[in-house]
Amino acid sequence: MDSSLKNNGKVSQKRAWYIVLISSLMGCSISSAFPQFSMTVTNVAQTTGLAESFLLTSDTVKSAAIVAAMLCSGFMYKKLGARITFIIALICTVLPQFLLPFVSSPAIFMFLKIMQGFASVIFPVFLLIIMDVISERQSGLATAIFNGIFYSGGGVGGTIAGFFIAKSGWISSYFALGIIELIIGLVWLFTVKDTASGQQEEETLNEKTSSLHLLKMPVVWLLIVAFISTTFVIQAITVDMPLFSEWLGYDEMETGKINTAVTIGLLAACLISGKISDMVAIRMSNKGKARILVMAVGPIIIILSSLMLILLDLTSFGLFYVTALLFSFGGSWGLGTFYSILPEIFDDDKLPIVTGLAGGAGDMGMPAAPLLVGVIFGARGMWHLGWAVCIAIAVLSLLACILLLGNKKIRTPQKQA
């Protein structure tokens, strides 16, 4: 075990930022599979004989698997440690990339999509490692950079797919992404070691009691609702924006450019919100509420950009580009703040469990987004109703943020020495 990862005091910040970067790149490659798949749905259907509606539904099932993976991530981390959990995630993310283009069995295809979703079990583990090694004053920026690069796969995947589809055919996009995932995964595996906090022989009764107690706390559920618009909109961007672009009449190269706007919005929002979150937290005595206040900006931007998607003439490429960028910016704003809120509210003993529980439950928006926006409304040409759902979800998140700001029980915990 690498002793440099045992606590903040013993790790150099240069190495800590390396861990942030390599973990972020691995996450980016994992999330890239969503838009890459969306851009090849028609090709996969023609090759495998599977219906397009089934293929779109498989992404919804994959999203549900992501939620399940996130919910059990904290327990796996404490039981197995980061290294074994990562190996499981790496297998789940790489193997389907090389098999999906050739699978005609609905059951096997769905199983591979579930595997892809379960790869997200590593997401909270990455965050826990980052929060363990990075200095407290930079925690917001570090988690923002991680989340920004991780979820920028929603744009990067589409850009990669657009390039390879145009140059060497749609199947090559699967192989290219799979190779990228494998290379980054092996680099992570051989350069980042387990943290001491992630290794436990057994889960104690107190830990089980703590988990049940957390699920009964209104603050936890308000945090989940506050975060759900972020995951919902990001998934709508990742899965449905390429489909919406095609519906508007844009080709693969133009859709790839739109995905570039998505990536820019994602990264910019995370970096800006994370930095502002750190700045506001320094200036306020209640650091948890300071970060929640910053997070509340995200739903407001989602509402405004969703109205633009509904009301504007998006056959103008420039206007569509700006709107997609703003929609991505608003949807991604919460990624720069949410996970830095948790250490400000919960003590070190509860943090691994609550990170998985709150993050996983907050990710309930992920399976709902492609189902509502893409399958139910988008497939029928009623995209305006899909974007209206985004507005409704954002309103709920904004109300949750307001209730959290008024909650007198939110205060900074006493950290263990």
Automatic annotation (TrEMBL):
Residue limits of the Major facilitator superfamily (MFS) profile domain? 1-409
Q: Does the keyword Acyltransferase apply?
A: no
The molecule here is called MFS transporter
SUPFAM superfamilies attached here? MFS general substrate transporter (SSF103473)
One family name in Pfam for this protein:
MFS_1
Arranged from A to Z, the UniProt key words for this protein are: Membrane, Transmembrane, Transmembrane helix, Transport
- Organism, as annotated: Candidatus Allocopromorpha excrementavium
Q: What is the lineage of its organism?
A: Bacteria, Bacillati, Bacillota, Clostridia, Eubacteriales
Among InterPro entries, the record links this protein to: MFS, MFS_dom, MFS_Na/Anion_cotransporter, MFS_trans_sf
Q: Where are the transmembrane segments?
A: 16-34, 54-77, 84-102, 108-129, 141-165, 171-190, 219-238, 258-280, 292-312, 318-342, 354-379, 385-406
Report how it sits in the membrane. Answer: Multi-pass membrane protein
Q: Does the keyword Transmembrane apply?
A: yes
Q: Which GO terms describe its molecular function?
A: transmembrane transporter activity
Where found, per UniProt? Cell membrane
Got a GO cellular component term for this one? plasma membrane
Q: What is its main location?
A: membrane
